[in-house]
Amino acid sequence: MPAGHGLRSRTRDLFARPFRKKGYIPLTTYLRTYRIGDYVDIKVNGAVHKGMPHKFYHGRTGSVWNVTKRAIGVEINKQVGNRIIRKRIHVRVEHVQPSRCNEEFRQRKLANDKLKAEAKARGEVISTKRQPQGPKPGFMVEGATLETVTPIPYDVVNDLKGGY
Amino acid sequence: MGFEPFVKAQKIKPYFKRFQVKYKRRREGKTDYRARIRLINQDKNKYNTPKYRFVVRFTNKVIIAQIISASIAGDMVLAAAYSHELPRYGLEVGLTNYAAAYCTGLLLARRVLKMLEMDEEYQGNLETPGEDYSVEPAESRRPFRALLDVGLVRTTTGNRVFGALKGALDGGLDIPHSDKRFAGFSKDNKQLDAEVHRKYIFGGHVAAYMSSLMEDEPEKYQSQFSEYIKRGIEPDGIESMYKRVHAAIRADPTAKKSEKAPPKEHKRYNLKKLTYEERKAKLIERLNALNSAAADDEDDDDEDDE
């Protein structure tokens, strides 16, 4: 009998709960709120059978486009053939985590706003752009001792020890 | 020589390595997570709207009624009422019975409504206690909605938890319920007997027991109801006592802050954790003590041998 290609095929380990984390799932998953436009990671929780996404979406990140009573609509990119389709799926909140992918961006935005406001108060114009790391500056090598290496003349008698 | 008889060790190292502990509050036997998930889960399209639970818990001496909403940082208590506040309203004995539960629920309801300035609109059930009463929505605001959180109590008919529920309902809260578990509901004709329920709310069952003990077993009456006797409470006066308490609660339900100043030093209930140096020093002391004791034993043995 051939192996099937059902909805949850080949997910024996993917959807399994981690070691010693079986049973009830912690309540913060239910207490989180999601707004449209947030980025979320999809991570399937095998303990909850309803509202499970297909195994393809496990580990993907997308943005929220809909919020319903117990589930969230997430828009994810999927490559189909030679193009990328924006797919919209609905997933129960147990299979969703808030994504930290734009956390650094948001923090930088806040910090930059503050810097800009301070500069405006002083009347300066500053650039808050990130600069890439340039080439390393030149430096002197410290504590270097010079060792001159010269070739040793070939000594026939010693080198042919043991047998000719 | 003392050998242990050979017993195969039951709990071996791999057992402990694979053991998954239950949640802490489950280990303590205090929280039913299955019920908690269902009580706390709020519709996602209601975003941050809090979902309030009407929590009723009984200890050996006190009844605790609280309105709580859940958050990731921890549950937030909106208002609380304890049965040890009832002496302030004139009820000094029987602080854990059905009638006291009713009073505590009523106190909490009036307190919450006053806090939210809804107490004028939602007076609750002023007459006919005992009958099933549900709050009707007024014109301007919808009634305060909470869900009963029973805890780990077995929900049998006539449980005191439902006495507290009735008190909160009559106080004006909107708590979805059915009258199946109120005291006085008979399974045979599937109806709530309002008279019986009213008797329980006003402590009629206690009064009846008092009267029967007074006639039949006076000594047991003295021991069982000694506090009642000390305060001169007669079985006939119990109902009017509870009526006065209800009126006092409706008159002024605000919580009173206790005048006790918080203690300057926080009392420690568990041992302080030692630092690494302290633990090493302790170990060295113990080893020294052991070595000197062993040295003394050796000296004694040597002396005996000689």
UniProtKB/TrEMBL annotation, chain A:
SUPFAM superfamilies: Translation proteins SH3-like domain (SSF50104). One of its GO terms (cellular component) is ribonucleoprotein complex. Keywords: Ribonucleoprotein, Ribosomal protein. GO terms for molecular function: structural constituent of ribosome. It comes from the Eukaryota. One of its GO terms (biological process) is translation. Belongs to the eukaryotic ribosomal protein eL21 family. This is Ribosomal protein L21e. It comes from Dillenia turbinata.
TrEMBL record, chain B:
Component of the large ribosomal subunit (LSU). This is Ribosomal protein L5 eukaryotic/L18 archaeal. Keywords: Coiled coil, Cytoplasm, Ribonucleoprotein, Ribosomal protein. Residues 253-264 have a biased composition (Basic and acidic residues). Belongs to the universal ribosomal protein uL18 family. It comes from Dillenia turbinata. The keyword Coiled coil applies. Residues 251-270 are annotated as: Disordered. One of its GO terms (molecular function) is structural constituent of ribosome. Residues 273-300 form a coiled coil. One of its GO terms (cellular component) is cytosolic large ribosomal subunit.
